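tool_call: predict_structure(chain=1)
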Amino acid sequence: MILEHALLPVVPGREAEFESVFAEAKQIISSMPGFIDLTLSRSIETPNEYLLLVHWESVEAHEHGFRGSPEYERWRALLHGFYEPFPVVEHFALVHRA
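tool_result:
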């Protein structure tokens, strides 16, 4: 299992709209093969910044499965217009758990 990490800088003033649209978009990603779960959290200190954490079975499930799918085009159309600048996405493997 891997963890996808993305800090999402939403254009200030569009936070409520983003949260509403994300509710629709999460239905897309959660239906994908290899998807395990996700959380979306909003920054206290920087209210227009969100932290998206997605567990996938593998990097390939995310990079090739989801991003290579027609469903990703719908995800992109829904969400990518909210970001300024565009977020950096990284993958992490678990080292320790308490």
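agent: The beta strands are 2-9, 35-42, 49-56, 89-93. Proceeding to next step.
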